[in-house]
Write a structure and sequence with these properties.
There is one protein chain. By secondary structure, this protein is α+β, with helices and mostly antiparallel strands. The protein is built from 16 helices and 31 strands. The strands form 7 sheets. Strands 13, 14, 15, 16, 17, 18, 25, 26 and 29 form a 9-stranded mixed sheet that branches. Strands 1, 6, 7, 8, 9, 10, 11 and 12 form an 8-stranded mixed sheet that branches. A 5-stranded mixed sheet has the order 4-5-20-24-19, with helices on one face. Strand 21 and strand 22 form a beta hairpin. Helix 2 packs antiparallel against helix 5, helix 11 crosses helix 16 and helix 15 runs antiparallel to helix 16. The protein is globular and about 65 Å long. It starts with a helix and ends with a helix. Bound molecules: guanosine-5'-triphosphate (GTP), sulfopyruvate and manganese (II) ion. Guanosine-5'-triphosphate (GTP) binds next to helix 9 and strand 19.
Length: 588
């Protein structure tokens, strides 16, 4: 008798009509074969899109060019289809589940004709973790199949694990004909099901990532009492040898990957990488907050990555092991056949841009797409935490909520109590980036960096965050951070990257009760003399500016936050209004 899984795959094949169905086993041999098929057969608009890069300097690396309209997440085409619109909330696009399915059925009918349907069995989380989830994704894109093998634990064993169970996480994905008019990413939380068509781009197509691990999982977490967050997880080892674990939420393209593998400029400090994008956090029996990274790879922003800014990522990208490494929509150095992007190193003479044309720097266009990315295995990361595979995860002592703000937000601010901590996340606003297809550099509210990823009503999400307090015996300290404040000339006031350890050092000292802080109307800030500035030569004035509190600016910000809160009507927890009003009062 067929298992529920086999029956489900068969049903989807009946609708999408592939020429063949192939069940992936996750072996190394299969990885090589998929890459070969990609190079030979994967075409977009009739053009080959996969090619081998310089295997000496970038071993096991391959280039991939996407459809030119398919370069970022498309938030306006992403829907969360709860039976009831209120459950989805004003933060999500919504459609009734039946209507959404009808629409998707029409678009998917025969969409895999002439192609192979790949069945991808994968785990989010270590198979021994009590928090791990068994998942299946179907896709007609070799690029997506290879990417999922890098980003998740893909093995045959997952099929056995699912066995006769019908409650596995389901994803149905087809690139369709890449038509942006026929592109949708639909979520059905009650069925643990994501249905995506028309895009091969990361967050739209690797359904274990944002779609499952954040949108569906955040809703599951609310029902089951845990948190699925858009957060880095890192261990910061100090000179005593102790490691303090930190989880940090920052919006897309605002510094998570760089923070997760930072190379400290302070002697005696070392960062251990647990995850760079997603954290699932549970309160353990010991009353501490434990975090796992459900992924096994990094889908990272290429532009700006260099030996100077992120040497550990450059080492990761050039390591070359069992797993292939993919570069998508970067440029290529035509003389060396190496990937290249703005901010990597000097500008080579002959560059092929992300469209595949010879690049003319004088034309004023970037050679690499600003959201060009690499997909690389975490197992190649030289700073991978020894606890990466720990089924229980790591115990979190501090949480960051970070924004990208040229003005207003200080380098670091600490929350005063749990309710204020939640407000620190809820009041977040950040400048938009190229990670999603919208205008860049516009400030929008982005609570906890979860606006595009919270799979249910955000008012309920705040309530959920508030409710976690009573389960915690050891509460993490919570901070808001901003590496991106600029001066009058638009220059960054803070050197960032490896220098961010100076801020982490203060955080570690706060966690261990070794240092004080001073109160302001928006929270606690360090006394300037407590920040370790050894070996850093920046104007003394910069530090003052980094912590300056512009009261009028914050009052305007309060107005913006109020507008946002109002959208949630009576569902918004009173505690958040109390905090907003208290902040306004303190600002005078
Ligand atoms: P997603 O993968 O979209 O979630 O992005 P992310 O949050 O992981 O951001 P990432 O670390 O890839 O950084 C995004 C951009 O910000 C890159 O161009 C980085 O070079 C830049 N960036 C990261 N950290 C810093 C920093 O401390 N200071 C400055 N000035 N720029 C930074
Ligand atoms: C982000 O946009 O936050 C990313 C890339 O990490 S994606 O996986 O496409 O969402
Ligand atoms: Mn991200």
């Amino acid at each position: 008798m067929a298992t529920p899984l086999e029956r489900w795959v068969e049903e989807q094949a009946k609708l999408t009509k592939p020429d063949s169905v192939y069940w992936c086993d996750g072996s190394e041999e299969e990885a090589r074969r998929l890459v070969e098929i990609g190079i030979k057969e994967e075409k977009i608009d009739g053009h080959s899109v996969f090619s081998e890069l310089n295997q000496k300097t970038f071993p096991r690396s391959y280039y991939h060019r996407s459809h030119p309209t398919d370069v970022a997440r498309t938030e306006h085409l992403t829907y969360v289809c709860h039976p009831n619109q209120e459950t989805a909330g004003p933060n999500n696009n919504w459609m009734p589940p039946d209507e959404a399915k009808e629409k998707m059925r029409a678009l998917s009918d025969g969409c895999m004709k002439g192609k192979t349907m790949y069945v991808l069995p994968y785990m989010m989380g270590h198979p021994d973790s009590p928090y791990a989830k068994a998942c299946i994704q179907l896709t007609d894109s070799v690029y997506v199949a290879i990417s999922m093998r890098i980003m998740t634990r893909m093995t045959k064993k997952v099929t056995e694990k699912i066995g006769n169970n019908k409650n596995f996480v389901k994803g149905l994905h087809s690139v369709g004909d890449f038509d942006p008019e026929k592109r949708f990413i639909m979520h059905f939380p009650d069925e643990q099901f994501v249905w995506s068509i028309g895009s091969g781009y990361g967050g739209n197509a690797l359904l274990g990532k944002k779609c499952f691990s954040l949108r569906l999982a955040s809703y599951l977490g609310m029902q089951e009492g845990w948190l699925a967050e858009h957060m880095v997880i890192l261990g910061a080892q100090d000179p005593s040898g102790d490691t303090t674990y930190i989880a940090a939420a920052l919006p897309s393209a605002c510094g998570k990957t760089n923070l997760a593998m930072m190379e400290s400029v302070l002697p005696g400090y070392k960062i251990w990488t647990v995850g760079d994008d997603i954290a699932w956090m549970n309160v353990g029996e010991d009353g501490r907050l434990w975090a796992i990274n459900p992924e096994t790879g990094f889908f990272g922003v290429a532009c700006g990555t260099s030996k100077k800014t992120n040497p550990n990522m450059m080492k990761t990208l050039t390591k070359g092991t069992f797993y292939p490494t993919l570069f998508t929509n970067t440029a290529i150095n035509a003389d060396t056949n190496e990937p290249w992007w703005e901010g990597m190193n000097g500008v080579p003479k002959n560059i092929i841009d992300w469209h595949g044309n010879k690049w003319d720097p004088a034309a004023g266009e970037k050679a690499a797409h600003p959201n060009s990315r690499f997909t690389v295995s975490a197992y190649q990361c030289p700073t991978l935490s020894p606890l990466f595979e720990n089924p229980q995860g790591v115990p979190i002592s501090a949480i960051f909520f970070g924004s990208r703000r040229m003005h207003l937000n200080p380098l670091i601010v600490e929350g005063m109590n749990w309710q204020h901590n939640v407000f620190l996340g809820a009041r977040m606003g950040s400048e938009t980036t190229a990670a999603a297809s919208h205008k860049e550099g516009v400030i929008r509210r982005d609570p906890m960096a979860m606006l595009p990823f919270c799979g249910y009503n955000m008012a309920d999400y705040f309530k959920h965050w508030l409710s976690v307090e009573k389960k915690l015996v050891y509460k993490p300290r919570v901070f808001s951070i901003n590496w991106f404040r600029t001066d009058e000339d638009g220059e960054y006031l803070w050197p960032g990257f490896g220098h961010n350890i100076r801020v982490l050092k203060w955080v570690i000292d706060r966690v261990h009760g070794r240092v004080g802080a001073q109160e302001t109307p928006i929270g606690l800030i360090p006394k300037i003399e407590d920040l370790d500035m050894q070996g850093l030569d920046i104007p003394k004035d910069n530090l003052k500016k980094l912590f300056a509190i512009d009261k009028d600016g914050w009052l305007r910000e309060a107005g913006d936050i109020e507008e946002f809160f109002k959208k949630f009507g009576s569902r918004m927890p009173k505690a958040m209004w109390d905090e907003l009003n208290a902040m306004k009062r303190k600002l005078g």
